[in-house]
Amino acid sequence: MYFCSINSHPIFDNVVKDHLKDYNVKNRSVSTYQVERWRKQIKHKEFNDYIGHLLDDYKITLPNRRRAFDYHLWFENRTDK
User: Fold this and answer.
1) Is the dihedral of CA 46, 50, 56, 60 positive or negative?
2) CB 73 within 8 A of CB 40
3) Cα–Cα–Cα angle for 50, 54, 60, nearest 5°?
């Protein structure tokens, strides 16, 4: 079983599922289908690893960067803009 602290990963929700593909980079891409498959099959480590590599590709080094990325996804894609 894979465990990580609350601040070390993004929330695995519909916003992430629907919009993670918007942040694909040349050598790393993911589809909505893949994200949903990770969720349904409880593949949290694979999901978390993908997010970590994506943040590395974008050279994001903030503290709690996965949670910061999750907040960015939510904020940019909220329905009450």
Assistant:
1) negative
2) no
3) 135
- Contact 56/48 with Cβ under 8 angstroms? no
The answer to whether 44 and 9 are in contact (CB under 8 A) is yes
> Does 74 score more than 80 pLDDT?
yes
Tokens 């465990």 belong to residue: 3
Q: Which residues of 33-44 are buried (b: 16+ CB within 10 A; e: fewer)?
A: ebbeebbeeebb
Mean pLDDT over 37-60 rounds to 90
If you average pLDDT over residues 33-38, what whole number do you get?
A: 90
pLDDT (tens digit, 9 = 90+) per residue, 59-68? Answer: 999 988 888 8
CA dihedral 74, 14, 59, 27 (to 10 degrees): -150
